[in-house]
Amino acid sequence: MTTIIAYREVSMRKLTLTAAAMATTALITVSPALANDDHKIVDDPLELTIHLHHVRSTAYDEDWPVEKVAREMTNIHLKNATVGSNSTNSAEAMNLLLATGKLPDIIGSARIKESVDQYGPQGAYVPLNDLIEEHAPHIKAFFDERPELMAAASSSDGNLYYIPYLPDGKYGRAFFIRYDWLDKLGLEVPNNVEELHAVLTAFKTQDPNGNGMADEVPYFARQWEELPRLVTLWGGRSSGSDTYHDFYVDEGKIKYPYMGEGYREGVKNLAQWYEEGLIDAEVFTRGSSAREYLLSENLGGMTHDWFASTSGYNDTLAEPIPGFEFKAFAPPENVNGDRIEEHRRIPVKPDGWAIGGTNKHPVETIKYFDFYFSPEGRRLVNFGVEGQTYNMVDGKPQFTEEFLTNGRPVNSQLYEIGAQLQARGYFQDYEYEKQWSNKYALEGIALYDEGDYLIDQFLGVAMNADEQKVFDKYFASARTYMLEKQQAWILGSSDVEAEWDDYMSQLDRMGMNEVLEVMQSAYDRQYGG
Amino acid sequence: MAMIDKESSAGTETIVPKLTMSQRLDRIQMHLRREWQIYLMLAPVIIWFLLFLYRPMYGLQIAFKDYSVFLGIDGSPWVGLEHFQTLFQSDQFLRALKNTLIISAMTLFIGFPMPIILALMFNEILNETFKRTAQTIVYLPHFISSVIIAGIIITAFSPSAGIVNTVLGWFGVDPIYFLTKPEWFRPIFIGSGIWQEAGFQSIVFLAAIAGVNPSLYESAVVDGANRWQMMWKITIPCILPTIIIMLIIRIGNLLEVSFEMIILLYQPATYQTADVINTYIYRQGLIGGQYDLAAAAGLFNAIVAFCLVMSANTIAKRVSKTSLW
Amino acid sequence: MKNMNLYSRGDKLFVYINMALIAVFAISALYPFIYITAMSLSSGFAARAGTVVLSPVDLTLAAYERVMSDPAFWNSYKNTFIYTFGGTFTSLLLVIPGAYALSRPNLWGRRFWNLMVAFTMWFHAGMIPFWLNIRDLGLLDSYFGIIIAFAVNAFNIILLRNFFESIPDSFQEAARMDGANEFQILWKVFVPLSKPAIATITLFCIVARWNGFFWAMVLLTDEGKIPLQVYLRHTISALSDDEEFSSTLLSAPYSVETVTAAIIVCSIIPVLLIYPWVQKYFNKGIMLGGVKE
Fold first, then answer.
1. Could you say which of C105, C149, C203 has the minimum Cβ distance to residue B10?
2. Of A369, B94, B147, B156, which sits 20 to 30 A from A514 (CA to CA)?
3. Using CA atoms, how far apart are residues C271 and C262, in angstroms rounded to an integer?
4. Which of B180, B184, B185, B273 is the mutation pick for testing A, counting most A CBs within 10 A?
5. Is A280 within 8 Å of A221 (Cβ atoms)?
6. Chain A interface residues facing chain B, Cβ-Cβ under 8 Å?
7. Distance (Å, rounded) from C-alpha B310 to C-alpha C19?
8. Cβ contact C218–A96 (<8 Å)
């Protein structure tokens, strides 16, 4: 009971470690009575057609081992009816499907949310609220515990039209720094903005790579958007979700990150840092090769990037660069004394599956969807087939040694057997990823978990037609303007202090207030503000 | 097939006195009996056009509809010119239009003559092996994807390691971060476009030059003309029809700027000179799945293009008797 | 024909400067190809880090091994050949007679037909209607569908028609005197005289077919029928997805970049070979030439 209350509060407050751990356990063992029930949905096999499109599985395959098990357990036989399966663009494939005028019984796709938001109210998809209430106890139990996720997945008419893919695991990006450089220069891990500035300056001027040249690049990033991310050090914001330049929620109010005082202060300082050479001079064009290049050439000092992939360099570069140690460190205290990690994984994705409007067996279908939220179904979709990819050890699924060490990426192996396909609606189990995570990544995650640096996320809103019209009219242009200014200020071609007032009144003229208004009304409707 | 009014025929029988219906039919019959073979040759192509390109064109109406893929083209409600208003309502659109026209015009003035010059230069090379090898090489960049070409350009203009800044450094110039400088975007974009495509585009002109009657050159030599004079007096006039046709088509593409390449090369810092209509619409987030708006943008493009081509075609016809139709 | 005695001394200077300029341009144009070849032979890490400039870094054939050991690669290669040759052949079959007819002054409605062809250069139906049309014609997911649906291109017709128009009437009149019909005139007079133009549009067809991917992606459902360019896109999307998730791939001998480069190199070789064949028709100082009189 306490966990449920804790979770309810989460929507506005930070998630504590204990609550998270307990809630996860609670979800796994939800209603033990159901855990061993018979999963047969129908007595005689029932065939349903499916369109399944996701970057790694652009068609449905009846022969996936996972599907064979699911078929056996539920007696539901899916038949492939995917349109556009050679396209790498799921949204395009789904539009072609809709254009044919004949929808299959189940539609599973990446980015299905846009489609259900638009065409759900027109009757293309079946609303699921009542079906879940009556026939899907596991899905219902999940959403009862996480009502904000149900709200986030709903469309503007208040109906839920798809069962989303729900990622597990909170941590995405973190601050990484060369610990070996710190040691070499006799410095401590920076604890606040001033210390960070001092450390980066030392990286620039004291030649930590020892080649006699000041060629070090103190802060770099693969995506230039990770540079404005640093405004969080001055109490600003750069985004409210895992998408760049997104809105954020501050005590129930929708705000735009590039309009705050903290942002102004942050940009002013970043411009200064850029000028001082503490930031990669080519940060805007270096692109995806930045991390590989600057780390392997022993030039890069600090970045803000994904735990999993960034940690891997400790193994890869151990040999070429003796002593190489590039590990996560806690976000430095910002000017207000807070430590903030702005980026986290989003708990609900716009991917998942829905029931086609002409489906003659909606009840059986929702029961089938529910199967994947049952403990057995969830294990099947997360870990694959017992005895093949994993075994139960102490009551928990554990991937086999062979599966983890055969040198092939775990994800692709799972896709190939039909597991972890995000065109299904299912609740991921972070444990699956943990079992093959790099040890440095796990260390870093433990560090971030301990300090509890994450902040709440904006989960998006579904606007109605009128709101959408206002939004479309103003937002993109205003955002373009803000990004142009942002780069100009950081590059030093104009001055943020001098231009700020003009900037704000220009945004006013460009309709940002109207945009925030419609976002707010959509938000209030959706999340019961 | 020949139901078209005779006024539009550029053929022989132009002035037709009043004819009775049966006389008309007779004439058509006679014409067909004599010329049926031409129509037989034309028919497959025309049928192909009708079947594959004209038949789906009813879809253009979605530019004026609130198109729902689910409700279908017929089932979607009309919205008049709303999509056009959505496209044109921001002053950033005007900026994008301006940039498009400037980039296109610059490409036209510099980029259009380049393949012609290149073809003429190839024509002056005597060594066959050198000529063939060089021709094959300059046509290669066309086959390398934009992503890779853009990568090469970004590296070449990089302030720390790029060849351009290295060379400038020899002359004591401080490194310039070219790709964040609005004033440098257009020269870099247009220059790289020419570099990538000139070789491939020169093929049409090489073919035209190959069609020039060699006896013309021979008699010119007898008259004591040098290579330069022969190029101006013989080669260029002979390939002029090809040049004109290519020019008209090029003018019709005035609003089309290589979208992919711009997306790969531009930055918010350079939007002010780099943002073109395609990229503007893309960034507005309007096009993803919104086929009605895309259709409106496409229609706008096509109508402008068509008007430009009509004028260019009329002028070309007057001046040189060469035309698209 | 064109030999040194056609050149004066002043011309020679002109010729050498010209050659030097072309050489410079050609060298710069060769660079992307060198770069991509070097990339395909480098280690995955070096390619990702962007340290490849002129020659392979940590030379390895891993990318080629990975590509060539995939049966889907060879299958898509085969498909590309089918689409390219089938498509080009069909195209010539339709375009040559069509362009000839459109160039005839005694064709009634000639202006209208030409306009109808040119119109399609700017006005397109849009993806969904086009796709529905192909579906209604029953041509989805078939080799024939891909071949026929893109067989004709307005630009190629106009180009060839324009060339046909520049052939002096005297040539065909002679043939007509001998009692040749239109087909014979086209085949015996126009086609031989237009070899450079036909070679050009053949090349354009081949290139378009070789590089085309969008419609193959949308119109084909069967993965066994996809061409090389679609295979390339599938491979890129799968590999980059893998790399995003797995740090074990960090030290793999190949990467998205090297595999992409290897596929591009494999796909360029045939177009490299086709060009010299086209050149044959450019450099012969063609026949008696289509000179405007």
1. C105
2. B94
3. 15
4. B180
5. yes
6. 91-92, 95, 98-99, 101, 114-115, 118-119, 122-124, 281-282, 284-285, 287, 472-473, 476-477, 480-481, 483-484, 486-488, 491, 493
7. 40
8. yes
* Predicted TM-score of the model (pTM): 0.88
- DSSP SS3 for A427: strand
A32-169+350-429: which CATH architecture?
3-Layer(aba) Sandwich (3.40)
Mutate to test the interface with C, among B40, B41, B148 (most CBs of C within 10 A): B41
Q: Could you tell me the CA-to-CA distances from A238 to A130, A241, A270, C169 in Å, in that order?
A: 38, 9, 13, 72
- Contact indicator for A420, A411 with CB cutoff of 8 Å: yes
Question: Which B residues 80-119 touch C at CB under 8 Å?
Answer: 118
Amino acid at A51: H
The tens-digit pLDDT sequence of chain A (529 residues) is: 333 333 333 333 333 333 333 344 444 443 333 444 588 999 999 999 999 999 888 899 999 999 999 999 999 999 999 999 999 889 989 999 999 988 999 999 999 999 999 999 999 999 999 999 999 999 999 999 999 999 999 999 999 999 999 999 999 999 999 999 999 999 999 999 999 999 999 999 999 999 999 999 999 999 999 999 999 999 999 999 999 999 999 999 999 999 999 999 999 999 999 999 999 999 999 988 899 999 999 999 999 999 988 998 998 899 999 999 999 999 999 999 999 999 999 999 999 999 999 999 999 999 999 999 999 999 999 999 999 999 999 999 999 999 998 888 888 899 999 999 999 999 999 999 999 888 999 999 999 999 999 999 999 999 998 998 899 889 988 999 999 999 999 999 999 999 999 999 999 999 999 999 999 999 999 998 5
The answer to whether B94 faces chain A, any CB pair under 8 Å, is no
Other CB atoms within 10 Å distance of the CB of residue A99: 21
In this predicted model, what pLDDT tens digit does every residue of C126-171 receive, in sequence order? 888 999 999 999 999 999 999 999 999 999 999 999 889 888 888 8
Q: How far apart are CA A53 and CA B12, in angstroms?
A: 59
Fill in the amino acid letter for A500: W
Please give the average per-residue pLDDT across B168-197, as a whole number: 93
Q: How far apart are CA C262 and CA C267, in angstroms?
A: 9
3-class secondary structure, A204: helix
Sequence-ordered alpha helix ranges (H) in A429-511 = 430-434, 439-451, 465-491, 496-509
**Residues of chain B positioned with their CB less than 8 A from the CB of C272:** 136, 140
| Alpha carbon distance A111, A212 (integer Å) | 51
Rounded to an integer, what distance in angstroms lies between the CA atom of residue A109 and that of residue A498?
48
Q: DSSP alpha helices (H): ranges in chain B?
A: 21-48, 72-75, 82-88, 91-106, 113-123, 128-139, 146-156, 163-170, 182-210, 214-222, 227-230, 236-252, 259-265, 271-274, 277-283, 291-320
Q: Tell me the residue type at C267.
A: S
Count H helices, E strands: chain A? 24, 13
Q: Tell me the ipTM for this assembly.
A: 0.90
Residue A57, helix vs strand vs coil:
strand
Name the residue in chain B with its Cα closest to that of C198.
Answer: B207
What are the helix (H) ranges across A76-128? 90-99, 112-119
Do the Cβ atoms of A86 and A115 come closer than 8 Å?
A: no
Q: Which of B89, B154, B283 sits opposite A473 (nearest CB)?
A: B89
Interchain pair B324, C158: CB under 8 A: yes
- Residue carrying structure tokens 């470690």: A17
Which residues in C lie closer than 8 A to residue A288 (C-beta atoms)? 48
Tell me, rounded to whole angstroms, the distance of Cα A166 from its chain centroid. Answer: 10
Q: In angstroms, rounded to a whole number, what is the distance separating the alpha carbons of residues A454 and A444?
A: 14
